[in-house]
């Protein structure tokens, strides 16, 4: 079962499953699974694909980035707790996100 809306980039559909906490990639033309990787938690925010990377946020508030071709994790940031405001955006190579205690984070994307 999908836990977020899928995203399509460069002929690949990326999705996240709440059952077991993993992200996956499917070839849009064939439907063949290209890869599947555990995230260590349910991905709760819609995925973003940009510059060959796949971004997401887990239910524990961890921002993650994975290589779009292999699914291998390349970056993670623990926000230090749950935030009532969830979500993130990626713009010009920077990942912005809300954190606990009314904080806002800005990190250079990998």
From TrEMBL:
Domain Pyrrolo-quinoline quinone repeat stretches: 6-86
The organism's place on the tree of life at top rank: Eukaryota
Gene3D superfamilies: YVTN repeat-like/Quinoprotein amine dehydrogenase (2.130.10.10)
InterPro entries: PQQ_b-propeller_rpt, PQQ_rpt_dom, Quinoprotein_ADH-like_sf, WD40/YVTN_repeat-like_dom_sf
Protein name, UniProt field: Pyrrolo-quinoline quinone repeat domain-containing protein
Organism name: Geodia barretti
């Amino acid at each position: 079962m999908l836990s977020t809306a899928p995203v399509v980039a460069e002929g690949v559909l990326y999705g996240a499953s709440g059952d077991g906490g993993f992200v996956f990639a499917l070839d849009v033309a064939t439907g063949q699974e290209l890869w599947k990787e555990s995230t260590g938690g349910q991905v709760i925010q819609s995925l973003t694909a940009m510059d060959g990377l796949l971004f997401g946020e887990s239910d524990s508030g961890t921002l993650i980035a994975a290589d779009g071709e292999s699914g291998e994790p390349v970056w993670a940031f623990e926000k230090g707790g749950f935030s009532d405001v969830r979500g993130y955006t990626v713009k010009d190579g920077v990942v912005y996100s809300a954190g606990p205690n009314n904080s806002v984070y800005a990190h250079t994307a990998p």
